[in-house]
User: What shape does this take?
Amino acid sequence: MQGIQSILFDLDGTLIDTAPDFIRIIKVLCEKYNHIVPSDDAIREQVSAGARAMVKLMFGDELANVSDNDPQLLAYRQEFLDSYEADICVESRLFDGLDELLLHLENHGVLWGIVTNKPRYLAEKLLQKLHLDKRCSVLVCPDDVKNTKPDPEPMFLAVERLNETFGVNLTAKNCVYIGDHPRDIEAGKRANMRTIVAGYGYIPPEDTEFYAWGADMVVSSVDELSNYIGDLCP
Assistant: This one.
């Protein structure tokens, strides 16, 4: 890992455990619309796939075969996002052990940041609630680019902004990207970054498909991630 100067994270399911708040909100909406509440595990497995996926999970057969631009789906999605924004950080938190890793990076001058498909207004609010907004060196959201992950554009923008903000001379090769979805690993690889699968988050334990995503490393725990990243600055 010689030459790595920045660690970039996906947000939901990689850096922050946001599932408890999504589970809580989905239960409220299912009660409102008299739908069967999905299991906590089923909800958790859809978090990294985004709001549309969680709404489709909630409404089941009603939305199973509609397009992503279906008006009813978009209306439910907006209600879901509005509910989430209003109460965004009741139980969300950094995954256990990640605060120590972030402190280690900060103490050794390694820039860390976030590249996410979460809308900026939600990502910023969440980071503020968790007091991470001043610590995070760069935040790249879908609002900032024409092409979102799995396109590498957000990854290149993160590098560009780190260089502009901190007066450094990073390239994508100097960065590691950690995520829990195939699009994360694809985006990182296409940008020529080292990539790590966060197997400790929302990936079902029985799912081994992530070994085929082509990442440089798969970690099953935050401790394993910390040990691997710790090679940067022992």
